[in-house]
Amino acid sequence: MYYIAFFFFYAFCELITLGAAFDAFGVLLTLMWLFLMMALGMWMLHPVGLSTVWATLGSQKKENTSWYQHLFPMRYMIAALLFIAPGLLNDLFGLLLLIPFRLPERFSHSSSNKDDSVIDAEFREIHDTQLPHQGQEK
Fold it and tell me: What are the φ/ψ torsions at residue 124 (nearest 5 degrees)?
């Protein structure tokens, strides 16, 4: 029930923002913006395709990877879908999804395994002056 109410509220907000944009910028400029954003969304989604969404979700289940590694490709695809859907709020949310951000270190998947990639070793050089020549046995 709440989803239906949210959907109608969101559609009402989209209509209000479209009306305000028509009034502020003019109908022609607003429609050009909407078609430009729709073309941008289709251009963004064209090389990726929806099959990449399923492959990304499948690879997260197969491999033991964090959800953060899959966050940017998913954000990119959702932003493209929001650009395709008409509406200024959709465009605004799509632009917000494209802003890069980083998680704090405490939420990072690799923060606990940070020292596992360091190899601690000692070495020494051996200068042996009596190396066997080729053809001679030890």
Answer: -145, 150
